[in-house]
Amino acid sequence: MRQAQQAVDRIDGAHAAGLARTAESLVSLTDRDRALCLIRQAQGHALCGDQSRSLTAIKAAHKLINHATGLGADDADTIGHHCTHAYLQAHEGYCLLRLGQVRAAARALEDALDGWPVNYRQDEALTRSWLALSYAATNRLAEAGAEGSRALSLAAATASARAMRALGQLHARLAGSSTSTDVIEFRNSFSLVASTVRL
Q1: Which domain, by its residues, includes 123?
Q2: Above 80 in pLDDT, residue 159?
Q3: Nearest to residue 134, comparing CAs of 165, 84, 99, 178?
Q4: What is the pLDDT of residue 155?
Q5: CB contact at 8 A, 104 and 81
Q6: 75 falls in which pLDDT band (50, 70, 90)?
Q7: Last residue of some domain: 57, 83, 109?
Q8: How many CB atoms are closer than 10 A to CB 198?
Q9: How many domains does the chain have?
Q10: Which of 7, 55, 73, 158 is least crowded, fewest Cβ atoms below 10 Å from its Cβ?
């Protein structure tokens, strides 16, 4: 499953989906861990442009997390304790973004962040990066800059390379696109932070 996540980071959708299917079939997994595998499958399918398979995997992951939540305490063997409704909704937003459904992606990511667990700051940085990219894709440039700055602060504080890579995409996307103060501040801050870390 971790290898599938790394394949997603490399934008290798077919490999990510295949690895996640393998992870799910190798051993008996708890509901949250199976949901994590399905999230990676959904991301892989989204990267390949397969909307039907991506959203089907997300739907199945929702059912597993609902079931796990209904059981109360997680099994002691569960790795994916962090795989909550908010986490799944954030990754659903990522899939929608990759599938070109940018307005739906923004709504899903906003909803995920509305109830975000305070302990998961690295994942929050990544989720805010995706939200900023969604705003940029819908021409909400000032909001993209403001959200990008929030994500950048978290990414720098938590040393999140994944969020920094996503913010690098935002930095490039916003180049020359706006004279908004929020956009200029984000781009200047990103350039400063990026000069001190390896992306």
Answers
A1: 117-199
A2: yes
A3: 99
A4: 96
A5: no
A6: low
A7: 83
A8: 6
A9: 2
A10: 73
Give the C-alpha separation, 194 to 199, whole Å: 7
What residues contact 3, with CB distance under 8 A and at least 6 apart?
19, 23
The average confidence (pLDDT) of the chain is 90
Which of 74, 78, 89, 73 has the alpha carbon at shortest distance from 39? 89
User: For residues 38 and 1, what is the distance between their CA atoms, to the nearest angstrom?
Assistant: 9
185/141 same-domain check: yes
Across the range 175-181, mean pLDDT stands at: 87
CA angle 103, 108, 111 (to 5 degrees): 125
3-state SS, the chain, equals CHHHHHHHHCCCHHHHHHHHHHHHHHCCCCHHHHHHHHHHHHHHHHHCCCHHHHHHHHHHHHHHHHHHHHHCCCCCCCCCCCCCHHHHHHHHHHHHHHCCCHHHHHHHHHHHHHCCCCCCHHHHHHHHHHHHHHHHHCCCHHHHHHHHHHHHHHHHHHCCHHHHHHHHHHHHHCCCCCCCHHHHHHHHHHHHHHCCCCC
Calpha distance 21→55 (Å, rounded):
15
In this predicted structure, what is the pLDDT of residue 76? 62
What average pLDDT score do residues 35-48 get? 93
- Assess if residue 134 is contained within a domain: yes
pLDDT at 20 (0 to 100): 80
